[in-house]
Amino acid sequence: MSLCPCGSNHNYQDCCQPLHLKQRVAETAEKLMRSRYCAFVKAEYQYLIDTHASEFASGLTKEQLAENSANWVGLQVESAIERADTAKVTFKAWYQIDCGFDAIYECSDFIKRDGIWLYTTGEQFEAKLPKRNDMCICNSGKKFKKCCALTL
């Protein structure tokens, strides 16, 4: 069994997989965001479409999502603010590129419809690579200089 890519420290089979298989729905907007990150890692593109509010999806397809596959490294959730039917989750989703690392750094908006959380839109920010003594972006528990920075 492998740990879930969402960073929960649970096995994938007990964490995001039941959401991807539509056996459960995300109880919170943060859990939805984590499961959506995991869906990118696991190439569960239909789940990404199904959990995107249709009026905000702009005709997004599984094929378009597959074109932009990345080597995902780790997820860092900075904050999650949830109200009755709306939420904001700010996160960094790190991925490896040819010359190093970059991240989708976003404050995502979510709505709750009929008890189900859906992603709507997000505001993008510029991510800065951690400093040498910061914790690593892959959530290994090691300092960046002793982990992913070694691959730069």
UniProtKB/TrEMBL annotation:
Domain YchJ-like middle NTF2-like: 28-122
InterPro entries in the record: NTF2-like_dom_sf (IPR032710), SEC_C_motif (IPR004027), YchJ-like_M (IPR048469)
Alphabetized Pfam families for the sequence: SEC-C, YchJ_M-like
Top-rank taxon: Bacteria
Protein name stated in the entry: YchJ-like middle NTF2-like domain-containing protein
Annotated source species: Shewanella maritima
